[in-house]
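As the next step, I wrote out a protein sequence along with its fold in token form, included below for the reader:
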Amino acid sequence: HSIADPAVVGIDASYKYFEDGLLVTENGRISAIGHASELLPSLAADVEVVHHKDALITPGFIDTHIHLPQTGMVGAYGEQLLDWLNTYTFPCESQFADKAHAEEVAGIFIKELLRNGTTTALVFGSVHPQSVDSFFEEAQKLDLRMIAGKVMMDRNAPDYLTDTAESSYLESKALIERWHGKGRLHYAVTPRFAPTSTPEQLTLAGQLLGEYPDLYMQTHISENLQEIQWVKELFPERKGYLDVYDHYQLLGERSVFAHGVHLCDDECARLAQTGSAVAFCPTSNFFLGSGLFNLPMAEKHNLNVGLGTDVGAGTSFSLLHTLNEAYKVMQLQGARLSPFKSLYLATLGGARALRLEDKIGTLQPGTDADFLVLDYNSTPLLSYRLKQANNIAETLFVLMTLGDDRTVLQTYAAGNLVHQR
């Protein structure tokens, strides 16, 4: 597991690896981690021991940006962001007016997350409150640590999919009262992105954050050049895209901005200064032709970065597959992404972006027992390739380039087995 950011402390000090290790859980939390030879003798005789011979135990993966209502349109052909929203996304999201549909998709969505080893996600609902109710109802059954919010969108979208500034405030407030802090669930104020919210709605989004100090805020920023130009036209009085959100008091320690492909140095510095985070979504940025996220620039400013699948523009629920693409994003910019930085982005980095590093993202004793068992023999090719790996760095890298949902043998949340391949 990662214990620090390799960009800050160097690779060797960034992780701990126990080749023949033991993870001990009790009452939903991790109580011990270490070498099996040292820990086994300390266990009481009646403690159940599960042994995985050719496998790796890691923290559960953390997805800092994903859309529940877009599950049914993953892999929709041939558009860039703004056309794609109008052609595919909005019609798909309109179906969530029906609670039965929302419940069905929430069940499929959570199963997909767990099959892929994602134990915590920051989730966009649709504009309909029932999209969030359905998601949280499913997550609560399994005691998952999840964050979600109802989209706020009162302009520049079809009439059948818009709310108003006031209704979005009242509906969000009702959802906050119903779900925020219930079990392991958290609420995120969710203006879709600056172009689909009026100044009145953005003002009320900022007001909600002021009324409930430990809420999250999620939105999109600087994903696509056409979108950035549109923001300039809609908010000519503001210095830039980030300044729109800054003006409405939407930056802060639990604010996560998806994409940030075209951020400048000053914007990265301002995000870092306010404790905000960015979700790096490589499969989506490739699929919509948006561009390459500049991770080295974010690191220079010590900006918190998590990883996002961004389903449905993203093409996979798998964070292993997402890391495969993240490596290529860096290669195209003449930079490297080490397997230990990748592990960090998918686990502790995501936890830090969400200010949950005391609860998830590592295997430290006292944290939630959210962890995975990754199977070295999940496919014939992976099995053969890993026999050529000489150390844990090579093993991790092969898992991240050849691995997918099949690699996740088991997923545990709060110490309970929630997925078995």
Remarks:
- The chain has 17 helices and 15 strands.
- Residues 210 and 397 are 42 Å apart (CA to CA).
